[in-house]
Amino acid sequence: MQKKISRYVTEEYEDSTLQHFLRAAMGLTQKEISRAKFLPGGICVDGEQKKVTARLKKGQLVEVRTENGNKSSAQLSASREPLEVLYEDADVIVVNKPAGIQTHPAGRRTFEADTLASRLMYYLGEKGEKGVIRIVGRLDKDTSGVVLAAKNRMAAGRLTAQREQGTLKKIYLAVTEGIPESESGEIRVPLAPDPEDKTRMIAVPDGKSAETHYRVREKGENRALVELWLETGRTHQIRVHLKEKGCPLAGDPLYGTGGEESGIGRTALHAAALTFRQPFTGEVIRVDAPLPKDIARLVEAMVK
Q: Which of 18-22, 78-82, 155-159, 266-270 has the lowest mean pLDDT?
């Protein structure tokens, strides 16, 4: 499957070589450029195939065809359950994941009936887009909010690089049992799997480094609405760090009290906002997901 990307030459790149423009303005890697050279119509300027040594003029249209390397997601069942799309373009899609569904099929259960990945597969399939779904940064089953997915291999690689470099940012909102002592701060506690229970993570001095930033947004008598963002992305990082801070997530059955008395049937954690760069144009994109009704009710009851 091929993908075509295009961009007009701006004054900044007047008289630049096509090679320089492809790297600096379009963000292509040398490997991507080399592959495009051998495709029919792979690298064109104003509709004519050109060598990468060609000089450019302002206003010219540069078009590049690349191999995405996409394969069919035939092993993944498509789900017709509703999908809330928050943002979409030719390369990426951002959706609002509801609580209660897995991001991906668990383990080898690729035919699991309803996951976020299977909903994405059905949605894109209905539009005639048959590529593999590549989700960049999953959420736990009980966590709601923004999830980013790439529509092709190249976009996935660039978004993953943003995540590793820390330029892809996600903001969470959480309701806690108990109120942090400070209005804002950092939690730096190393984490590792619990040797006695592999479903849990624990704080240990020789674990993997983990850093969470937080800010209290609202306070009640014994609960708080807390905004959080991460410098690292360890499993259950927010859940364990808040527990270590003495204010676990409301409704958390692993690290808090859980149960019906919490007033919510799941962990009260929501991925509220995502900021990233469009993988080919470099445009900064921010996407927000509204607070779901169950967490909004907790906040309303808390501040009464």
A: 78-82
User: Percent of the chain scored above 70 by pLDDT?
Assistant: 91
Domain map (residue ranges) of the chain: 2-67, 70-163, 171-270+298-303
DSSP summary character for residue 133: P
pLDDT for 74 equals: 44
Is 294 among the catalytic positions? Answer: no
Over residues 194-223, the pLDDT tens digits come to 999 988 999 999 999 999 999 999 999 999
The one catalytic residue in 89, 140, 194, 294 is: 140
The CATH code for residues 171-270+298-303 is 3.30.2350.10
CATH superfamily of 70-163: Pseudouridine synthase (3.30.2350.10)
Global confidence as pTM: 0.78
CATH code of the domain made up of 2-67: 3.10.290.10
